[in-house]
UniProtKB/TrEMBL annotation:
GO MF entry, a single one: ATP binding
Cofactor: how bound: Binds 1 zinc ion.
UniProt cross-references to PANTHER family, sorted A to Z: TRANSCRIPTIONAL REPRESSOR NRDR
Protein name: Transcriptional repressor NrdR
Cofactor: Zn(2+)
Function: Negatively regulates transcription of bacterial ribonucleotide reductase nrd genes and operons by binding to NrdR-boxes.
Domain (ATP-cone) ranges: 46-136
Domain of life: Bacteria
Amino acid sequence: MHCPFCRHADSRVVDSRTAEDGSSIRRRRQCPNCMRRFTTIEATSLSVIKRSGVTEEFSRQKVISGVRKACQGRPVGEDDLAKLAQRVEELIRARGIAEVDADEVGLAILEPLRELDQVAYLRFASVYQGFDSLEDFEAAIGSLRAERDAAIAAAEGADGGAGSEQS
Ligand SMILES: [Zn+2]
């Protein structure tokens, strides 16, 4: 495994741990040349079945390029997109299946994107879920508002009760 910083051809494993769901192994490695550390993830192959029926390897980069347009002009950086793509991959891998439909990848994007940026979420959902009327937008915005209000109420109610029932 090449060092991602200096391209040195060798690296030393300093720590290994299996993901909680057992789907992958993370290895912390150190480059003996530049001494920097990086993480590798060893996982079973995950395939995406496209609408055309063609199967391809799951790609975080494809997730990012799919979401990037919805994030134009929003305060969403490359780091945020990389983290989002990682969340999406983890969500899908947690199911422990080797193949998913492209549609399921789209669905897995919705939740983390909503947490990241609500406007980008609305844009993505409107294209992905085929919003074709103002009512569709109103329904989506209504559920975002309800969630926000519930979060505010939970925060206000959290003063006295440590074991809040909101989750
Ligand atoms: Zn290096």
